[in-house]
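Aim 2, interim progress. The first record below pairs a target sequence with its structure tokens.
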Amino acid sequence: MGPLGGKTAFFDEARAYMLAPTPQARAGPAKASLHFKRSLAYRETMRFSTVFVTLGLGALSAVACSETTGGGPADTQDASTADVGTPDPPDGSTPDAPPGSGFGSLGFKVADDGFAFENYGEGAQFTNLTGAELRRFFGDTVCATPGGDACGLTPSAQRWLLEQNKGMDGGHCEGMAALALLFFKKTLPVQDFGAATTGALALEGNTKLQREIAYWFVTQALDPTASGELKGPSPNEIVDAFAASLRSGATESYTIGIYKPGYKEGHAMTPIELRDLGGDKVGIVVYDNNYPKTERIVEVDRKANTWKYVASTNPSVPQSEYLGDATTKTLTLTPTTKRVATQQCPFCGTVEPNGAIKGNTIGRMEVWLDGKANLLVTDAGGKRFGHVGGAFVSEIAGGSTYVPRSRDLWQDDHEPVYRVPTGQAYSVTLDGTALAGKEPSDLSFVAPGYELAVLGVELDPNQKDTIQVSATGDEIVYTTNGSETPTIEIGLATDAADYIFHVKAFGEAAGQEIRLKLDRVTGELRVIVRGADAMASYDVEVIRRSSTGEAVFTHAGEQLGKNDAVVLKYAAWTGQGTPMKFGTDTGNDGTIDVEVDENDDN
């Protein structure tokens, strides 16, 4: 007798496992031993289940091959990094089984356990992420004013929420894939959302469900979910990891991600079964939320270590075929244990008068582009991150990207979200070289304790605009040669109050430069507009949020000489409906020459 204890013991164990009447019983004393899972007898057990079919015990075979329940690998491994190893397969090979039969299944039925409605994008009838969901993630640290779920958000929280909701315009696949799995696993009670089963839930008019889908959608942008995505494994290793999650007693489950090269055009689905397709091919059966009530298959060639998925039901759309191999790293798994863990807040914190960030240890800034242009981020040392001459370069240490997975798939080729270390100054080029026509663009920077944005740019083909941001987020400079009239935004969170500033300078054909600079010590905002004309016109809005509530100041139609600066004394402003002191610095030499009380237009 060898270390496995003999085949008789193995078949006794296998029989007990397959005859167990319930998933709970299979997860108990009858669950497979470590040797059983790793040995050659695993394959013999699969043959054994086929013998049961021959004997007319098809239902028992279904239990063994198609209804194994549970989550992750029996040998738990940390999935907190993208290149983490995957659990060992039972014996390094695919179990033998007749073509078309299953290797294992969650028992997830797409008609009952998937949503009956299709993945959806933008629409006035849908509600996405709200302040309530941010509080659920991160607590009251996202609030600048009191009010519970209706609190006024900090500037960074508000801008991050807006950008995440824009990301859902392309679809909610991540949220739908994750939530369907959580309902199936009974991690969340589906009954709380309006029906006895996931397949019976209605989307229209179901605001609670819409917000829940949005909540789980954004976990892909947060750690440990994002860093836990398994991007390193080959297709075969992905199959092995998923197979491990189908074993009795497993504690992990996954959503699956597919990408085109460069992690573009991503999509999220729910893997539910492994199926033998014959000829060394294995099918990962998925619930694809783009196709309700229909099983679809990601095909993995075990011999070639490749995978493919046709994302369209129309064979005349060649772009819809997704392909990958062991080098592309474009087939991924996201562990549920990472998704349901406490998520880290990337934007929480306040800014000290000296520019130091308090209350955040992540130390990164996110750069979001809403539009079809390309971006290039350059640090003070000339290191680049983004697109250069049609190629993607990554020279900034600590830089990374993530691509929200969407509904539009191969039709979605937007820029990723760029992540760069805080504490450094950056210059960002908004590049319209590849544009076919005028395109609207918004560019946002979100960091712990502050945010900046350039909103409403109308970028022409071959136009290149530049945005410079300081190392502490207290200054933003926008330069264009076009006839732009964007709104420049800068927001900061402090212990005393939070502020959001909007300045809109009216452009001219010859271009202009707009500079906003905060002095956090004196509580002043300096505005400089440089253009070809002798005078520039601008509008300003100041929003203050604190423990006493929100106050808003607006003033429109002010004139400013092209060599002058205006200084808004925001910290001295006494509140809603009262004037704010504006100082004019003629020649921008640092001295206020004229100071007046400007009335609130509200």
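The second target in this work package is listed in the same format:
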Amino acid sequence: MASICCTPLMEPMETGFESVHRFRFESGDRPIRTPSLSLTRIRSINGLKASSNDGFVVVEDDLHALLEILPPDLRENLQNDPKRTKLIEVILDLGRYPEARFLGESGGQYLRSTEVSMKELEEAQNVVGEFGGDNRAGIEGTLHRISAIRSRKGLVVGLTCRVGRAISGHIDMVHDLLQYGESILFLGRPGVGKTTVMREMARVLADELHKRVVIVDTSNEIGGDGDIPHAAIGGARRMQVPEPSLQHKVMIEAVENHMPEVILVDEIGSEAESLACRSIAERGVMLIGTAHGELLVNIIKNPTLSDLIGGVETVTLGDDEARARRCQKSILERKGPPTFPFLIEMRERNYWVTHREQKFPPIPYSLLIHGLDTII
């Protein structure tokens, strides 16, 4: 049975955010203060029949549906693989060996000694159907995602078949933060589990906290492919987005038309989406979002997304003030209040760092931006 540990983070400077480390570890074990923790197992919830996937309870993965698009020999190979519950994705690139990647392993595993042919790629496309404007497609009724790589002529020459799983217990480490009713931004590199967290967040907010939840699902990754959303999101509603470039418009539409208390949006990446987030937050709606990055400093340095945590501006200090602060005269400060009062760095699947806005005037960012690391 696993437990959650919260440890304050000592910072070398003030950034306007308080920080806390959150770990998942086995009961009876001592938490280890390192970013490279091994995944641990947690209990099944209320007797739910589910399989454990190295740390979390997998309620459903529909793996057979994803394997159906693969060539028969690869399908059989993976069905008999004892590590199939850890499968992350299957890579099919024209003229190369097909490859499977598993959770907790660096590199991949070749599935056979012959290369992928154009015929096999075409057969896989016929099963998947049409790709969207972002070169992504799904399998109806599942959470899987298939992404295409195209040649200069527009032909599909590669497929990334990514496994989507409905996982319960994934947000235990930050469940308490939902009680504040404040917006939360999850920051992490690709593959660390941000979308899985969004899915579980939607279910908990809708079913356990009884909020009116609307998901803006740009690539149908959170709620699954098809017009009927996957059961993993519970009672949350889902709005699909015709084109990725229209995500910010659908976000505003969700607020104006459907009276949500909470909006979830995955992969905030453009200035228009950042501005839409601020507009929604100023209307009193709670936001749960994700963005690519690893640390708070990545968002501070990103001119497109820095507004999510208040923005950055250059301020010139007087001589006396600079001496009092023991810093240079030109410094960087936060412009205003953040759109997301909480920012969570997903450094590993079971090791997160939570930053919360401190309730006093903006504090200089300069030292952090110029390379000082956090002290763990």
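The first strand starts at residue 2 and ends at 8. This observation will shape the mutagenesis plan for the next reporting period.
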